[in-house]
Amino acid sequence: MNEFSFSVPQNIVVGRGTMAKLPEIAKKLGGSHALIISDPNLEQLGLVKKTADYLEEAGIAVDSFTETEANPSVETVDKATEKFKAAGADFIVALGGGSPMDVSKAVGVLAKYGGSITEYEGAHKVPGKIVPLIALPTTAGTGSEVTAFSVITDHSRDYKLTVFSYELFPAYAILDAELIMTAPATVAAACGIDAFIHAEEAYISTAASPFSDAMAEKAMELIGGNIRRFVANRMDAEAAEAMMTGSLFAGLAFSFARLGNVHAMSHPISAYFNVPHGVANAVLLPVIAEYNALADHGRYLKIYNYISKIPAYEGEFEPMMLVEAIVLFLWKRSRQRFPQWQQMP
Fold it and tell me: Is the pLDDT of residue 341 over 60?
């Protein structure tokens, strides 16, 4: 076994209704003025106001920034940073999916250390702790609430830059499944596939360790066994909780084992064509899984059994069976549910 290490320097609360713990957690951080970073859809749905109400009722001042777009840009990070400074806020609440969380992490860096987020591109360039951050995910997909990454689009290069630093971990993450139970089916599907691929790529990574394997295996079990139920009925509370917890574990897995060619190729696709990240991943996964099949060393069988309704056993399994199962898992059922995908190859 190769040497490995890990640290999970976060406080994570999981359970329906746990959003109500937000004021208590904010006070533990010493926060007195929050900037909620979210997006227009969540503002329209009333979730930004609901979050602000919880804080204001506890005597905490609140401002909000809700201009975050899908595949958020350098310019958006700059605007949100200015809003944070102008408001006099002392902590951030990231409310949403991966985009608001990526922006929140970037703002946490710039509000503390200045400059442009492009200056922090790469690994371990953040000099120390960022502005205190509480993450409230509203999708079961990115796992950004427990990852050390912020991915921001630089339109000047048609490029997605990545900031990687363990300083980016939110201090607290609150995973309340009630926040994902109103997601549209298309969002639930794309985000759920993204989470599954986080776990799958971490699991076959050459940087995998027993810790990341444990997180990845449980993530694939939870997501593989519940994504169909959740997309079919987002009000299925049991499936929603399983998806949210699976996304959490997948995020932990890839924070320590990293990702692979699916994500390496999907980032430029979504940056250039503005394709939703999970959809780009789903298109690429069968091709990359086939490409990697020659290098399988026994892990494809486990992945296969997490997504297939008919289990396979050693001696009868071939790696290409996983590729076929992925095509079934992703496309045949997806095309039945989403007719607009019929035109995709």
Answer: no
